[in-house]
Input
Amino acid sequence: MSISRRSFVQSLGLGVAATVVPARFEAFEPQRERVPGSNSTILLNSNENAYGPSEKVMQAMQDALSSANRYVSRQRHDELVHAIAELHSVAPDRVLPGSGSSEILRVACNALLRPGDRLVVARPTYEGVSFYGQSLGAEIVPVPLNRAFAHDLSKMLASIDAKKPTLVYICNPNNPTATLTARKDIDAFLENLPANAHVLIDEAYHHFAEPSAYYVSFLDRPVDHPRVIVTRTFSKIYGLAGMRLGYGVASPEVVQKMRPFMTNFGVNIAAAAAAIAALQDHEALKPAIKRNADDRQEFFNEATGRALKPLPSHTNFAMTNAGLPAQQVIDHFRSHNILIGRRFPPMDTFVRISFGLPAEMQQFWRVWDMLGLHPKGHH
Output
């Protein structure tokens, strides 16, 4: 199905500027770049794919650079939308690509929240949505994770105000805890969702979660629910964090509400080429998933040998209790040229570690051992 010129322009998001996120959003803190040599900074702080994109994706980006002086064409945009739609067996008018899934999260807030409306989030979870909602004057309602570090959906449901529009954010697998919320529990939650509420399901780490009855993607097994928005990103499994490309899948009506808030020409020409190539490079996907699973298992092996008990991980990072103030541990690693995740209150003694290359993880554990922790201080 071809996208009309008018809808194409709308999908690029004319007329509305991006919401400014407060500077205290630590996720966007400056990072030192990795440089050649033994003094390179090791980046284990942003859940990036340390291995980068596949060779075919790299080639596609390089080929696209010859057109860097041009805006992404309607044909290229259509090709990207149709590739995503085909992947998930949905109509193209349900797909909205953007500059990272973060843009999709932002425009969902822009489209569905007004001052005084309610945004229900887990605590802790990815904070971006809370800051987007806060900048719009929405009431932010944080709901602590349950004892299994899953979303407490019964309390989230109870936090929905029947008298005002509400947006509920579910990050699954969750960042920063790397834990899962059961699909059956989310299904039950949706069955009881009040008519004034929408649900934003963030599946940024989907590919790292082992397929099971417990975890099933809302794109792999969709629900026919007009108020559910599912987001994905090319930043993680495809190794394209720096290219900024993600997308949302929602009902055509919700997509149309979101379009006016999109950044104009937000998907750059190299990112579009990279994404199309990534979706076609089927041979690279399974090895990338297995490589992360192997790295994750190695992390847990090392942790177990040190009497650590990280939270169960279904992502490309892990969270563990250091038994020390998180900032103290963060500063310790920073002093040794290693960046790990920021603080995530109220888990004030937990630290989040993204999985790096094997040699980087050897350095991580060497520096960890310099903390001189004892088993009794661990979770």
